[in-house]
Automatic annotation (TrEMBL):
<comment type="similarity">
    <text>Belongs to the 4-toluene sulfonate uptake permease (TSUP) (TC 2.A.102) family.</text>
</comment>
<dbReference type="InterPro" id="IPR002781">
    <property type="entry name" value="TM_pro_TauE-like"/>
</dbReference>
<dbReference type="InterPro" id="IPR052017">
    <property type="entry name" value="TSUP"/>
</dbReference>
<keyword id="KW-0812">Transmembrane</keyword>
<keyword id="KW-1133">Transmembrane helix</keyword>
<keyword id="KW-0813">Transport</keyword>
<feature type="transmembrane region" description="Helical">
    <location>
        <begin position="202"/>
        <end position="221"/>
    </location>
</feature>
<protein>
    <recommendedName>
        <fullName>Probable membrane transporter protein</fullName>
    </recommendedName>
</protein>
<feature type="transmembrane region" description="Helical">
    <location>
        <begin position="104"/>
        <end position="122"/>
    </location>
</feature>
<feature type="transmembrane region" description="Helical">
    <location>
        <begin position="45"/>
        <end position="68"/>
    </location>
</feature>
<keyword id="KW-1003">Cell membrane</keyword>
<keyword id="KW-0472">Membrane</keyword>
<feature type="transmembrane region" description="Helical">
    <location>
        <begin position="12"/>
        <end position="39"/>
    </location>
</feature>
<dbReference type="GO" id="GO:0005886">
    <property type="term" value="C:plasma membrane"/>
</dbReference>
<feature type="transmembrane region" description="Helical">
    <location>
        <begin position="129"/>
        <end position="148"/>
    </location>
</feature>
<dbReference type="Pfam" id="PF01925">
    <property type="entry name" value="TauE"/>
</dbReference>
<feature type="transmembrane region" description="Helical">
    <location>
        <begin position="75"/>
        <end position="98"/>
    </location>
</feature>
Length: 253
């Protein structure tokens, strides 16, 4: 049984499991953010495509219990157009991942995420329900980022956090969105050959670790002050920006 993990040193598996547990706790609490934590760290020790494909698989399967509750609270009028945009444009992101210089992609992600964070911190609010076209366009940008790195949250998070919706609704929107969007990502990654033997070996370790972490994080959200949620989301977006910045590689990798 242990021979399955031969390509990976025990220290590497323990390291990835630790990072994945933290990422899963964050996902269970906030409804997003796991990719922002896991992907930048994991790509420092395994191939970017392997890290992204592994995370996509576990995040789609393990979070299904969260989806059951979220579908009753999300706002479909904005979630569905955003998900359609993401499903369509994730193929562009996957193509860029397979054919474009990684350094260029990372600087582009940093620029987009930083601009979105600045918009949120400025205090700007969109008090109406986002129009279908706005939701579609925002989801499209998320799809491209998801295809590149599985860090697709910042655009849709910024859109829904800028509204006056209750944190529980924002969280439900994101859980449903990411579940729907992952369908397109699965197709794109399969067509690009990202689901390798290394990915399925890592899944044996990753699924139980991530499942326990999701449960832990979800329990935390049920007891959290709503005011804490928005601040926590801002911190996660800032983490996404910093970990995407190539200039900080000597410190973060």
């Amino acid at each position: 049984m242990l021979g399955i993990f031969d390509p990976f040193a025990p220290e590497l598996l323990l390291f990835l499991a630790s990072v994945l547990f933290v990422a899963g706790c964050v996902r269970g609490f906030s409804g997003f953010g796991a990719g922002m934590i896991f992907i930048p760290v994991a790509t420092s020790v395994v191939a970017p495509a392997t890290a992204a494909a592994t995370f996509l698989f576990i995040d789609s399967i393990v979070t299904l219990p969260l989806l059951i509750r979220a579908v009753r609270h999300c706002i479909w009028a904005t979630v569905l157009p955003a998900a359609v945009g993401a499903v369509i444009f994730v193929h562009l992101g996957a193509w860029l991942l397979a054919s474009t210089d990684v350094l260029i992609l990372r600087w582009a992600i940093f620029a987009i995420v930083t601009c979105l964070l600045a918009l949120l911190i400025s205090g700007w609010r969109y008090h109406r329900l986002p129009a279908a076209a706005v939701s579609f366009a925002t989801g499209s940008v998320s799809g491209v980022l998801g295809g590149i790195s599985q860090v697709s949250a910042p655009p849709v998070v910024a859109m829904w956090l800028s509204s006056a919706n209750d944190p529980a609704i924002v969280r439900a929107n994101m859980i449903v969105f990411f579940t729907l969007a992952s369908v397109g990502t699965f197709v794109a990654y399969t067509l690009n050959g990202f689901f390798t033997q290394e990915v399925f070996r890592l899944l044996i370790m990753a699924v139980p670790v991530y499942g326990l972490a999701i449960f832990t994080g979800a329990r935390g959200f049920s007891k959290a002050d709503p005011a804490v949620y928005r601040k926590f989301a801002y911190v996660l977006i800032a983490v996404a920006a910093l970990t995407s910045m190539p200039a900080l590689d000597p410190l973060l990798r």
